[in-house]
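Listing S7. Sequence submitted for prediction.
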Amino acid sequence: MKGQMKKAFLYRTIKTLGRQSDKNINNFLKFVEFFASKKRKSVIKNLRGSLSIEDLQKKLYRNIMINSNTNFSRKFIENFLIQGIMLNHEKRLKLLDKGYNVPATILISPSMRCNLKCVGCYADSYSKKDDMDMALFERIIKEGKDIGVVFYTILGGEPFIREDVFDVYKRNSDAFFQVFTNGTLIDENKAKEIVKMGNLLIMFSVEGGSAETDFRRGEGVYQKVRNAMDLFKKNKLPFGFSVTVTSKNFDYITSDNFIDFMIEQGAVLGWYFLYMPVGVNPDLSLMPTAQQRLKLKEVVHRARAQKPVFLVDFWGDAPLVGGCIAGSQYAHINNKGDVEPCIFTHFAEVNIKDMPLLEALNCSYFRKIRSKQPYSDNLYRPCMLIDETGVSRELYRNCKIYPTHQGAEDILFKINNELDSYSNSVKETLDPVWEQEKCQYNYKRVLLHQDHER
């Protein structure tokens, strides 16, 4: 009863803050920051420092909590902000005192089956026959909530290829799910179901415009994604987009035309992920060049400041969270139950079927990864697979880990020379930039990955 009263008070407070003035939206962020753990305080401070108050009001409050469907705004506030960031703080601290790290989100791929066959997709590396048992899927979420995790990122494969996932989302109405989808299986009925639940934030995967998307994903896919976006806009459901950045689509997906079109469609959030040379027969020519990575960072930072959409460069924004956070602030559990540190790092030491979630998240492999983070003094080069390649090879040699699919070791041994050359090129370009810009970040205090750090 006491907990419910506290939650009701926080809900009313958050709904009130930010309605009237820029000053109040700043008070809202300070209010959230006050309840956050020391780990997350630095992230919020970095975020506040990277945007003006007016920008934050447009992006993080009005688009998501005021101008959206009531079911969604309530679940976002209650589940993600109040329960996830504020009330679960003490629960995470108690576990941290006992030496257990608890991530901010857990990534789950309940199936690797997909209705598309995209060029260079990492999901193509897995067997698509064996879906995760729904009881195991739900067990992961239940145990996650027990240790303070209410935010789950659902991937695949194509998550909506399984109808039974909706039952899990409904039964876990006190959790919040970010779902990455190709969008082709979302019709009006599914959109209405998502509206009723309120605890799903959908990320539509695109490759750019119609030419880029249909080239990589198949003819007609782009129009289907647009149709799904139209359904969400019609129902006042906030959504985002994710794009795989390649050397080929780079010019278009970093253009004002593309970003403005996504905003016009209704997107409030956008993820930019670099093409990673994982999966079957990776094409290294698709990897963005060092200069393209630099430009991407600049484009995303500028768009965040000037446009009503919140963009994230998964590599270039690493300084905001202290570098790579794989195995520390997130982990991935694939359809077979293998517990991987990252969606792109296809190695594991343990399987969730054999142990409790908390134990799996604190296996020796993950602890070793956390002890090495950040891997570089330059947080613009955060990745152990393509930036600090020696780290991933050392972990493979010294940890008792196994590849989670056939060919996973190719990134360490088959294309290692090419990746070393690539990482050297990135180092030459981005190191001087980091030396000039590192003072902008609170990076020395953003120690999200240390087991002892609160």
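Caption to Listing S7: primary sequence and predicted structure tokens for the chain studied. The mean pLDDT is 86. Residues 416-437 form the longest helix (22 residues).
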